[in-house]
Amino acid sequence: MTKVPEPDFGTERARIKDFFIAERGYWRPWAETMLEVSPGFLEQYARYAGYPARTGPLTQRMVELIYVALDTSSSHLFASGLETHMRKALEAGATQADIFDVLHLVAVQGAASACQAADILAEVAGTDGLQDLDAHLKARIDELGPQHALTMHAVARMDSGYAAVLLDFIEHGRSVGGLEPGESSLVQLALHACFTAFNPDATRQIVVTGLAQGLSRAEMLQAIQLGAHLAVHGTALGVNTFREL
């Protein structure tokens, strides 16, 4: 009877490690532990997580800038991933202005939810006695609000000063010579669509804006997909804790 050779687990795990690094661009202790315990997870995760960047229409520069936004977002704050993707963004041709424009959009992200909450306040408490919008302020809101998924009319009627300084921050706080308008929309779409701070209303508005700017469905879908596999950072935390125990 012919003896069936036993599988060479060392060679197979080396192949999976090489594949993971090629797909994800990094190797960390949690991945080493997962390679020993559940190599199938690691291989299939790498294939799943790498798919959007590998197959979508966005350039590597744009993909990495989106990852910079997602890892920097106050809803995630993932420092090691940020370092990896910021370096890769610069290597892919991103400029300092691009990076700091992304960081500006990260800072603006929270304003969308604040404006939505103000809409709810106005709806429930009523608008009697609220100030009328100044024509100049209304024009600024109508111009800049949709670009950043901000519904500002209610908050401006309750506190015009807040609306004015927010618009100043949006208009004058960004880097000179950074992202193109469509690129800015892709970054914001990724931020608002990500599970870490999912904002359906803001996502819908940015999609409308993106389509008006000429972005394709495929480009916007890729920006949305890039955020999903950040959930593995929870897995990594669990693996690291298990290893320590």
Sum up the structure in keywords.
AhpD-like, mainly alpha, 13 helices, 245 residues
Structure characterization notes:
The chain is an all-alpha fold. It has a domain at 58-228: AhpD-like (Up-down Bundle). 71% of the residues lie in helices and 0% in strands. It is built from 13 helices and no strands. The chain has helices spanning 9-24, 29-37, 39-55, 60-72, 79-91, 96-125, 135-144, 153-158, 160-172, 181-193, 200-212, 217-225, 232-244. The longest helix has 30 residues, at 96-125. It is elongated, with a radius of gyration of 22 Å. The mean pLDDT is 94.
What order do the helices and strands come in, and which of them pair?
Elements: H1 9-24, H2 29-37, H3 39-55, H4 60-72, H5 79-91, H6 96-125, H7 135-144, H8 153-158, H9 160-172, H10 181-193, H11 200-212, H12 217-225, H13 232-244
Helix pairs in contact: 1-3, 2-3, 2-13, 4-5, 4-6, 4-10, 6-10, 7-9, 10-11, 10-12
